[in-house]
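Hi, here's the filled form for the chain we discussed.

Project: internal
Contact: R.S.
Residues: 74
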Amino acid sequence: MQLGTRWNVGDEPPARLEEPVRAAIRQVEGELDGVPTDGWRWTLTWLEGRPVVELDDGTSIRVGHDGSVEIVTE
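And the returned structure, exactly as it came back:
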């Protein structure tokens, strides 16, 4: 696992993320409308060369071997 970066909910995700992952992040953030997210952050790590993006509430976005993007909520 390789550490990437962290950023606040609502901020621009890292440019090195491919558009399907960025779209998944926008989708999750859109579903948070009305939820107080002050101080919530995303964490980007890399596992086997693929991004893993996790939100402080436990939501994660993963890219499969086939390139599919999956959003997992707790």
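Let me know if anything looks off before we file it.
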